[in-house]
Design a protein that fits this description.
Blueprint: H1 9-14, H2 43-57, E1 62-66, H3 68-80, E2 85-91, H4 108-113, H5 115-119, H6 123-129, H7 132-146, H8 154-161, H9 169-179, H10 191-197, E3 207-212, E4 234-239, H11 246-249, H12 251-265
Parallel strand pairs: 1-2, 2-3, 3-4
């Protein structure tokens, strides 16, 4: 949710940056213009949305930064449209899914961490997410599991949870977690982009990859393990007292990474 950057954006603006913090599709006040458009949450759609936003704003080139889905959108855009990406800040490094490995098991520890994704693969997950109170309890639990050292209060969570009330949230989220595991087809409009992503294209822009030392989703060293996917200048920073919601938890560290990439992009 955009609230993740509530303490990051002012720091960047104070340093002279033009800062745009958009909602992802299916969140906040976003809406689909055509009822017939598939409510896809696939990675190609997220990256294409980001580039479409740059087009709409008349921004030819920008430093892209994000975590989780926002980090994936940024990585996809950086990999497929390198001319639009002046630099990248991404949690856990290269965040482009390799769907050729969708049915290949990983370590038992990694599988345990992804339990929430498997829950959303069937009808029981849809029924649960469609209940607003259950959905909020579910997301609250994920926050606690993903960021074990972050003592967020109810008001902080509520500000972000408001973004989950979008009418398309459930469809987009379920499609994302089902598509990445090869259980459903993608939107044909993004098929060509998904084919290119299947080649795991390199990111050439200057990049700082962040890992939270207490990340409950990604394993330790996740960012460093993706170094081979970066053809340009690449640095890993491990941020102490931070989990998966790093911009919320350590906004100064996130903002500093963005400003350092901005400096390197000139």
């Amino acid at each position: 949710a955009v609230e993740a950057y509530a303490e990051v954006a002012p720091r960047l603006a104070a340093a002279g940056c033009r800062v745009v913090v958009p909602h992802l599709r299916g969140y906040g006040e976003t809406r689909f213009l055509d009822a017939a458009t598939p409510r896809s949450g696939e990675q190609a759609a997220l990256g294409a949305d980001l580039v479409a936003l740059l087009d709409a704003l008349g921004v030819p080139r920008a430093v892209l930064a994000g975590y989780d889905w926002g980090g994936r959108a940024s990585c996809v855009a950086a990999a497929l449209w390198p001319e639009r990406c002046a630099g990248l800040v991404s949690l856990n490094g290269y965040n482009v899914q390799d769907r050729s490995l969708a049915q290949a098991p990983t370590s038992p520890e990694a599988e345990r961490r992804y339990w929430y994704q498997y829950f959303m693969h069937g009808p029981r997950g849809r029924t649960a997410l469609e209940d607003r109170a259950w959905r909020n309890d579910f997301c609250h639990l994920l926050w606690r599991l993903w960021s074990t050292t972050w003592s967020f209060d109810d008001a902080t969570f509520a500000r972000s949870a408001a973004a989950f009330d979008n009418a398309d949230f459930v469809d987009v989220v379920l499609h994302s977690y089902r598509h990445r595991h090869g259980l459903v087809d993608g939107d044909p409009a993004y098929a060509a982009l998904e084919d290119r992503l299947a080649e795991q294209p390199s990111v050439t822009a200057p990049t700082i990859a962040l890992d939270g030392a207490d990340d409950g989703v990604a394993a330790a060293g996740a960012a460093a393990a993706t170094a081979h996917r970066f053809a340009g200048p690449f640095e890993v920073r491990v941020i102490e007292r931070a989990g998966h919601a790093l911009p919320y938890e350590q906004p100064a560290a996130f903002a500093d990474a963005v400003l350092d990439v901005v400096a390197r992009s000139h």
